Amino acid sequence: MEYILINSKYDNHKIDKNEFIFINTNNIILHENNNTQVLILEYTNFIKQILNSYKDEIDLINQFKLDFYRTCVFINGFQLTSHEYFINFFNKLLPNNKLNELLSICSQTGLSEAYIIVQKTLFNKNNNLIFSELIDKKKTRHKIKIKTYNNQISINILKKLRIVDPTNEISQNLYNVDINLNLIFNIDEYVTITYNMEHIKI
After folding, report:
1. pLDDT 10s digit of each residue in the chain, 202 long?
2. Model pTM?
3. Angle at which helices 43-51 and 96-105 pack, to 10 degrees?
4. Most CB contacts within 10 A, which of 23, 117, 186, 192?
5. How far is CA 153 from CA 61, 156, 195, in A?
6. Is the dihedral of CA 56, 63, 155, 24 positive or negative?
7. From CA 145, how far away is CA 122, in angstroms rounded?
8. Contacting residues for 105 by C-beta, under 8 A, at least 6 apart
């Protein structure tokens, strides 16, 4: 998938001023400083890849149902406890094909491209590094926050992960990574994925 990487640099003397540089690359940049990196994904390709990972609509709905209970899902600030409420709520707002797109984004597949891009970077840098869940399971559940207003559906997906070197006797955490996906559904032509990279000093 083609994308643009935006590397955010912070001036130590002017911490409130961000300088953004657009870089064409296939890699997330790993270095020993905490940093923020942003991907801009073209929506049509993004959703096509996600939908192609399912055999059919039944497979998609079953996966959404499974993933829903491993996720904290909020609509307009209220946490949902039933996948059926989610489907029924948006079934009234969206045609079937757009509902399927929304369900796929709000399943684990919604962050699949974000995972793949980081893992490719790790393979290029060091075959031993892996991108994985946090040890503390309370922090690993990913959150989906949806707001509906003026016939718009705003989606924000957040998940905490880590980059690990498993080659030592005790696996060594190198980075904590917060992934943040943002999209105004059915309006935005691009999906924004932000990585907050926290380097763990050894």
Report:
1. 445 555 544 443 333 333 333 333 446 777 788 888 888 888 998 999 999 999 999 999 999 999 999 999 999 999 999 999 999 999 999 999 999 999 999 999 999 988 888 888 787 776 678 888 776 655 556 899 999 998 899 999 999 988 888 887 777 888 899 999 999 999 998 899 999 989 887 6
2. 0.83
3. 90
4. 117
5. 20, 10, 22
6. negative
7. 29
8. 47, 50, 155, 157, 183, 185
Task: Give the whole-angstrom CA distance, residue 33 versus residue 36.
Answer: 10
| Residue owning tokens 């409420």 | 85
By the 8 A CB rule, do 134 and 160 touch?
yes
Both tokens assigned to 64: 């959404």
Distance of alpha carbon 146 from alpha carbon 154, whole angstroms: 6
